[in-house]
Amino acid sequence: MGDFSLDKLNFVLLFPVLSLLFWAIVLLLLGAFKNLSRNFYIGASVIALLSTLCFLLVCNGFGLKDSHAFFGLFVSDNYAIFAQIVILAFSMLYLLIDKDEQKPEFFSLFLFMVASLILMVSSTNLIVIFLALEGSSLALYTLIALRGTHNAVSSSIKYFTLAAVGAGFFVFACAFVYLKTKSLDLDNLLHSEYISDPILLCAGVMFLVIVGIKLSIAPFHFWLKDVYCGVHTNFIAFISIVPKITMIIVVLRIFSALGGGVKFEYIVALLAIFSMLTVSIVALIQKDAKKMLAYSSITHSSFILAVIVSSMSVSSQGDGTSYLLSIFALFVYWISFAFANYGIFLILSLFQKSSFESFSGLFDQRPVLSVVLAIFILCIAGIPPFGIFWGKILILVSILNSGYYVLVFAIALSSMIMLYAYLKILIYIFFKKGQEIEAGNLDVKQKVVLSLCLVGSLSCVFLLL
Predict the structure, then answer these.
(1) Is 376 exposed, middle or buried (0-12, 13-18, 19+ CB in 10 A)?
(2) What does the pLDDT average to over 341-367?
């Protein structure tokens, strides 16, 4: 203890999290004692996220060097920095597009949730990950239920129940890891002599339960459709992107540590194949756009899980180039999907109903809006030359390099099936005739964000240059 100093705690790496916690507490106190306008809370929340982004870039973002704080409990590496930038950027986009009346405590809980998400991607310690996971989840359950409708409350309870079961599996998995390695740090597990131990395989399967719930992988996806129908439309865009990119980083850390000797990647591959094929077929029979997009989100999450399988395989083989290709493919794909998904739900938020019939004749009445919506739908369908197509090509190449040919076939088949589901809504928009459509108009902020999403969907191809 004689060599201990505060400098070794490296508090500067915690500034992004501490900044968000400070703003969240301030907004919570203001909401309790002052009756301020909704625009004030939105502006203050955006400023909080911007200041956090500045702290991130100034403190550790420009150097892109691995740093540690609090004796390794807090880590700043390339994964953490990239994920934090995505979390903060798309959180700000959500606040700018949201037009629904929210209670003052919504914004405080929102900042608490984002702080927990940042903490979750910035640690390799299983206890810290678990605490951050539960902190973000509890805030998210509450935000879903704050809408106050019966559907919102029931979907929040269903999500909470399933996630509570997943949290129990996570704790048991942590206990198994500690049993064999006497450590809860994933870096120690990565270099552990027990990497081929069957107990660690059991731990991996238990981790897979919480991963399946948080990434909404079938058969752990039953909460997702209810949430899509129960919350505000713009909040769906946030739920489908930001918490999942956080979980993707956690999955990369955990599964890379567990992959290799126990052949854990085969179990993950089977789950990904089952999920993408089953859900693609179910999506074909949906008559509501939101429900179809819920199943679409599951297929995209399954594709990401397939990439993680290939990254686990090449990582265990020590092939650094193929591993970097897998990670690059994952990030290109998810960023492209994020822009397109935000654009779709921003447009859907203008309509009172989301059934396919409610979009009949939309092109005759709102041609520009119809064309933009069609571009976003073609983007998530993986039609060239949009960004997701190139991301999917990178995914297939990385999986082929790792030798999982069955996964490539499953992704191609699932994409073909989902194409019919996407084309169904386009048929109603352009070729069906309907009555007068009641739809709202975009305000200035929403038009700017929609333009940004459109540019992002079209220009993600330049990430390949």
Answers:
(1) buried
(2) 86
Q: 316 in the Ramachandran plot: left (φ > 0), alpha (ψ -120 to 50) or beta?
A: alpha
Contact 373, 347 (CB under 8 A): yes
pLDDT reading at 387 higher than 90:
no
Is 8 a residue whose pLDDT tops 80?
A: no
Point out which residues pair with 69 in neighbouring strands.
74
Q: Taking Cα atoms as reference points, which of 249, 286, 297 lies closest to residue 119? A: 249
Q: Which pLDDT band holds residue 33 (cuts at 50, 70, 90)? A: confident
pLDDT above 50 for 1: no
Q: Which of 6-20, 341-355, 369-383 has the lowest mean pLDDT?
A: 6-20
Q: Which residue, among 167, 296, 180, 158, has the nearest Cα to 231 in the 3D structure?
A: 158
| Distance in angstroms (rounded) separating the CA atoms of residues 270 and 209 | 14
- Please calculate the CA angle 172-21-85 and round it to the nearest 5 degrees: 80
Cis peptide before 243 (omega within 30 of 0): no
pTM score of the predicted model = 0.91
Triad 168, 315, 408: Cα angle to 5°: 85
Q: By C-alpha distance, which of 205, 236, 252, 302 is closest to 83?
A: 252
Polymer length in residues for the chain: 465
pLDDT band per the 50, 70, 90 thresholds, residue 194 = low
What one-character DSSP code corresponds to residue 57? I
Distance CA 139, CA 163 (A): 13
Distance CA 433, CA 356 (A): 12
CA distances from 264 to 90, 145, 202 (A): 32, 36, 9
DSSP state of 8: G
Q: Quick one: how far is CA 122 from the chain centroid?
A: 16
Asked if 333 and 304 touch (Cβ cutoff 8 Å), the reply is yes
Average of per-residue pLDDT values in the chain: 84
Cis upstream peptide for 219 (omega within 30°): yes
Planar angle of CA 147, 153, 159, nearest 5 degrees: 115
Joined together, the tokens standing for residue 152 give 């919102």
H helix or E strand, kind and range, residue 75: strand 74-76
Percent of the chain with pLDDT over 70: 90
d(CA 344, CA 295): 15
